[in-house]
Amino acid sequence: MAERLTVGVAARLSRYLQVLTQARKMGKDRISSQEIAEYTNINATQIRRDLSGFGRFGKRGVGYSVDSLLAEIRKILRTQGQHNIALVGAGRLGAAIASSPIFAEHGITIAAVFDNDPVKVGTTLDGVPISSLDELDAIVHDRSIVVGVLAVPAEAAQAAADRLVEAGVKIIFNYTQALIHSPSDVQVHTSNPAVELLYALYFHLT
Amino acid sequence: MAERLTVGVAARLSRYLQVLTQARKMGKDRISSQEIAEYTNINATQIRRDLSGFGRFGKRGVGYSVDSLLAEIRKILRTQGQHNIALVGAGRLGAAIASSPIFAEHGITIAAVFDNDPVKVGTTLDGVPISSLDELDAIVHDRSIVVGVLAVPAEAAQAAADRLVEAGVKIIFNYTQALIHSPSDVQVHTSNPAVELLYALYFHLT
DNA sequence: TAGATTGTTAATCGATTAACAATC
DNA sequence: TAGATTGTTAATCGATTAACAATC
Question: Which of A92, A173, A187 shows the shortest C-beta gap to B92?
Fold first, then answer.
């Protein structure tokens, strides 16, 4: 498997990863493509097809072993290691992100938190010290962080993104409404729950 | 336009909607397919193709009028009205969601907030009274809510989802890690930032 | 006119699905 | 053996893209 995955396959594999992670926590040993399909809304044939492109991971009549399939997908997606990320913004959303177990579960550590509020700087957020944005460059370099999460007010988003880019961050998760300009070698993922909701409503209304 | 949009088209149109909403706030009158492409990572030809399927909205050599394109897409997606949603969980994530301007901007109102903590019940979250989950059924019926947002601990997610389903909610946004079982007429959208991050990292690492 | 950008064509590629033999 | 579920084929459909004439 030397070729790069297509965007679609990589997106689906990461969905399977999440289902398997949860299934394992629930104590399940085996899972069928049909069960994964129920949780992901991805067609069961598509799931088997995606997986069979990398090997014969399942047992006919039985299904897939949760543990071994998890290991295989992690190998394919190369997500076995630990990853350090930087969180910019220690407000309500920042606090929610920092306290969520969702990152740790997938080997992602919030290694630095930044905020411009002098009252917050020096305190901690879920055990991580809050630093001033002036220290961002030094800290991000120091800890080889390539991912930044924007949880600041929309007005402050572009400036914070610029700082992350200057410091060498290559992936930015933007949880503000703001549109972010960035160099072409930096991926910006904008997540907007309201937009997803309107999209979901369309299919409900029609 | 009597036919239902395909999933892909509806998803892309709602992305354009977000870009246009922000562009308008920035005072832009006109926007080109190329500009929308930069913000959405969707190919410019695809954007023009998507739009031209519904009419000739642009001016050659000029681009699209932000205001009129916004109106057209809202018409296509039928998202012109106001929508009431219920938020379950008044913890840190719930607080972040309730205080975000992102929903109001798209005509979505958080009409009810629920939490099981007796200390929180009776207080308000960003102006919305917090009710006990025991009142969920009555309130959801009363306010004709069809969308519920889960911002509770993972252990409480399925029980909260069951209550929403019983009350008649048809769209659930799940911000917990938990896998949610639901009847086939209820759409569950699970959002997991960690999974999106692993997916983004794959393309960075390869 | 010159430059810019849309709308559209045509060609290719990946996604999707039903069906079913293989096999646990 | 009987039932279940994978792996794979074959056929279809939508997504994607480059190219370019039309036209502002």
Answer: A92
